[in-house]
Amino acid sequence: MLCLLFTATLFIATMMPATAEHVQAAIRSGAVPAHGVNLGSWLVMESWMSKQSPVWAGVPDAIAVGGEHQTMAFLGREKADPRFKLHRDTFITAADIAEIGASGMNMVRVPVGWWIMPDSTNDAWKHYSPGGLAYLDMLIKDWAVRSNVAVLVDIHAAPGSQNGRDHSSAPTSNVANWSRDEGNIARTLKVAEFLAARYSQDEAFLGLSLLNEPEGNPATNSGVDIAKLQAYYTTAVSRIRQTGNDCVLVVAPLLTEQSPTAAGWPTFLRQKNIWHDWHKYLKWGHEGQPLSELIARGTDTIARDISQWTGNPLFIGEWSLGHPDSAKAEFQDQNQGKLYASTYLAAVSKAKGGWAFWSWRADTGLPFGEGWSMRELLRGGILKLK
């Protein structure tokens, strides 16, 4: 009976007409913070969190962990295209967006790859399975409108890769070539302009995250060049604003510079509707610590860093209840898991711009996706938003 009631509630929510004023306007104006969740592994795939997807059938783990580019090279378009279509059709649906809205959230952050922009003349674009744009259209123009959920589009994978990770579809693992080729930067600018223009009149469109998790080391001149990164942000903001588009634009520092004292970032691009992005995880950097230590000190460190930030509105674009192996046993104790969730949530809620949990679905095969699946954490009562 409860299952039938839950299904009926989602159906009704999905069929509801748009409200008089979509919540996106209140978030953009700063009247309310964004409280939401990422739609990870939907339009940019990561094998670890979508293990049951048909895309990975018969793909060796050593290739799958490299991301979409390496997986496509292995499968070929003829095999891969129908698999990607089936995955996109089923991994995230209108019912998911309705459930997100009904859970008390007002926003989703959706990772996309640079190939979301059609360009059939580009050989590199042909390497990816087409059709993702239709799903992004459906999310922004239909599902998010009906469920009163704002959409932040995130350029998660840039040409050449900005971090060498699977989630940026790196052609070669651990190699970040994005800023080493001006053509990569120029293409990313085109994608940003394309997305901002395409959805500028859509009421559910909150804005655009200009680049996800760029990684580099200025001391060794490796990875992303910080001067080129900031120049890209400045140019992207200028071009988008010149069209009269006042959507939220999110800039991310180098992954190692997510702190209130990072040189240059607190004063960077001090303009209206520019947010600064941090991703605050306790999964890494706390190896060997029990969950009680993460609760007592880890979340407190996050809260302190947020309170000391003096720049543009801070947005915690990713966080989760993921934890090191040393905390696994405690996390399975539901009382401890709930305490971890509530203290973590309280910490990230100090961010003026808001937060987005990573991620809505994480099909790891373990309970609650080991702290990564918000859907299961909410359904299981571990994480409570209301």
Describe the structure.
The chain has helices at residues 2-15, 23-29, 61-64, 68-75, 77-91, 94-102, 132-146, 182-198, 226-242, 291-308, 328-331, 334-348, 374-379, and strands at residues 34-38, 107-113, 150-157, 205-209, 216-217, 222-223, 248-251, 274-279, 314-318, 354-357. It has 386 residues and is α/β, with parallel strands linked by helices. It has a single domain (2-379), classed as Glycosidases (TIM Barrel). The strands form two sheets. It has an eight-stranded parallel barrel with strand order 1-2-3-4-7-8-9-10, surrounded by four helices. Strands 5-6 form a two-stranded antiparallel ribbon. The two termini are 23 Å apart.
Radius of gyration: 20 Å
Q: What is the strand tally? A: 10
Which structural category do the helix and sheet elements fall into? alpha/beta
- What spatial form do the alpha-carbon principal axes imply? globular
What is the count of DSSP helices, taking H or I runs of 4+ residues?
13
Order of helices and strands: HHEHHHHEHEHEEEHEEHEHHEH
Largest sheet features:
8 strands, parallel, barrel
Spatial separation of the terminal alpha carbons = 23 Å
Q: Unreliable stretches, pLDDT < 50, 5 or more residues? A: 1-19
Which homologous superfamily in CATH is the superfamily? Answer: Glycosidases
CATH topology: TIM Barrel
CATH class: Alpha Beta
The share of residues in extended strands comes to: 5-15%
What is the typical, i.e. mean, pLDDT? 94
Label the CATH architecture.
Alpha-Beta Barrel
